[in-house]
Amino acid sequence: MKFLKILSSLKVILVFILLEILALLIIANKSVFQRSHFVQLSMDVSAMMYEKTSELTKYFGLYSTNEELVRHNTELQKKVEHLQNIVSSNEYLASVGHDSAVAFVPAKIVSKTLNDLDNYFILNKGEKDGISEGLGVVCNGNVLGVVQYVSRNYSAVLLAMSAKMKLSGMIKNDGHLCTVIWDKVSTSKAEIEDIPYHIDVKIGDTIVTSGFSSIFPENYVIGTISKITKNKSTASNDLQINYSVDFMRAKYAEIVIPKDINEINKLKEQTNQ
Length: 273
Hints:
The protein is α+β, with helices and mostly antiparallel strands. It has helices spanning 2-28, 32-95, 261-272, and strands at residues 102-112, 120-123, 136-139, 142-150, 155-159, 166-171, 177-182, 189-196, 206-209, 221-231, 236-243, 252-258. The strands form 2 sheets. The protein has a 6-stranded antiparallel barrel with strand order 1-2-5-4-3-12. Helix 1 (2-28) packs antiparallel against helix 2.
């Protein structure tokens, strides 16, 4: 905006100086023909200068307006994406029903680590929100990880794509239990080993949580089978899994809190004594 004001001021000054010079020339020369010629010339030059400076002003004005529109559009896109995530999350939370054995605490992902052997998300919910260590975390019903550390306002989630994470899973169509581990290479792939040949598995089959854990209830989606490899040495199949959650793009999550968490924790303490 400052540039446009300066440009406008220069336009007026240039026209003024030009007219002053032409006026002096007219006064210095008494020829009617030359005076008429100079007047016409001054008008042409003034018109040309005004037209060019007006075009420049208009150009920079449109450029400035376009930049503002781009910024405004970017802000609106961010707001729309945020609202879409909220709607998606709310639809999922509604789908599990109010009589579910768990409660959900929606949270925003504020930090990510995705290139280590053990990877973490930092969520903007902590002890003051009822969050404690060992709680499961999902993203629209897809397994994300487990809360490992908690401060008053934040919590650190150990992701499913971590070397020390083992998920108790189940082949949904068959009910066969399995353990899902990260392949330690990709942000999107996991592995299941030693599935007996007689278990009917197909590419595209869904792997869900087994429910045999106090962390995740049954049927939260872990991923889908993307590759089946026969292991002759163990007479079994090794499965490659594509995680259902996109760790790279995830922005929001839901922390899963069993409604009887206090009772469960008390029993855990007793059994560990």
